[in-house]
Amino acid sequence: MVSLEFQRQIEGYGLTTANILYRIPDHPKVLQTYVWQAYDLAPVFPELKRFLAFWERELEGPLHSVRVAHHRLIDPRGVRMASAEIVLH
């Protein structure tokens, strides 16, 4: 059984980290940091966009800025076909 994370990596998803700065509702001049991390598909970033839409819709802290880093953990060079299979009992 293949994990969902591994299957997504094979499909092209990579680890995405977003550093989100937002304003505290009671103190609008103060910025707070939130780090979000998930597997996402660059350059479209559908998961990050979904999260940010949720943030703007449900949370009170208005967004100031979002910095994104993305890295594919598995690329075509990292996947090879096995030449043999050995089974031990």
Give your account of this protein's structure:
The protein has 89 residues and is of the alpha+beta class. It has one domain (4-74). It is built from 2 helices and 3 strands. It has helices at residues 4-10, 46-58; strands spanning 14-24, 27-40, 63-71. The longest helix is centred in the middle third of the chain and has 13 residues, at 46-58.
Keywords:
89 residues; alpha+beta; 3 strands; three-stranded antiparallel sheet; 22% helix
Structural class: alpha+beta
Uncertain segments: none
Any idea how many domains?
A: 1
Shape: elongated
* Overall number of strands: 3
For the largest beta-sheet, the strand count, sense and barrel status come to: 3 strands, antiparallel
SSE string: HEEHE
Tally of separate helices? 2
- Terminal-residue CA separation: 19 Å
Rg, rounded, reads 19 Å
- Strand order of the biggest β-sheet: 2-1-3
Helix-residue proportion: 10-25%
Strand content: 35-45%
Mean pLDDT, to the nearest integer, reads 86
Task: Produce a short descriptive summary.
The chain is α+β, with helices and mostly antiparallel strands.
